[in-house]
Amino acid sequence: MDSKELLKKVRKIEIKSRGLSNNIFAGEYHTAFKGRGMMFSEVREYQPGDDVRDIDWNVTARHNKPYVKVYEEERELTVMLLVDVSGSRDFGAVGQVKREFIAEIAATLAFSSIQNNDKVGVIFFSDKVEKFIPPQKGRKHILFIIREIIDFKPEHRATDLNAPLVFMTNALKKRCSAFLLSDFIDSHDYFKSLSIANHKHDVAAIQVYDKRDAKMPDVGLVRFKDLETGRDIWLDTSSKSVRKAYDKAWYERQQNFSSTTARCGVDSVSVATDEDYVKALIGLFRRRG
Q1: Model's pTM, two decimal places?
Q2: Cβ pair 116, 77 in contact under 8 A
Q3: Residue of 71, 157, 217, 246 with fewest CB within 10 Å of its CB?
């Protein structure tokens, strides 16, 4: 993509995502994430109505009466966008190509973050961490992030969700709010790394998929290209057993996505590339509020 075309795409996404974050997401975002970054301030004597989970047992034992920890909201949060750049993001049969759809969602989240005076960083991943952009503030930084999301060319095309989760857990010492943006087409077991990452940070999972990922139409003999391995596969889509096996594989992947995120305590949402992601994100924010 030449620089002129890239600039045009960046500008288009900026106008749309800034408008959404200004008019729709600003309040929802702040409600969903205020108080997520809390730091210890002091201890004081327990008062009726205090949450017993805030009791400081060490101080309580020393004074022989209950004391609670008092926290104050940090002035700013750190938001990390974990963006899937594997080969499958180049697929698009119904609606937008996944890559462009993910870019819009990421840009909207980024603009919402800086409106809340938060820092934003990005981890691009395939089956490894391809690039890490440390968290910073400001419109210039956000535009740099959007350019990278649109035009980034990964070295690898396969997917391993463990890679960005382990990297974030190890690299970021301060608690952050993280959005994992992917189609979640991954054969690896990522339960452990997601669970550990969400224990240290605050992770939300956003699945972007194409309707053709979910259901195969009957269009006869078709050559498919596996975008992550590069292999060509011929399939007879008129065969009921072939379509049934395809549908079953999708169902099992979705069951794994839902059960894994639920067991890890991670809020999640799935949105198709021909659907309104605004509605999906607001639903996600409200569940977290």
Answers
A1: 0.78
A2: yes
A3: 217
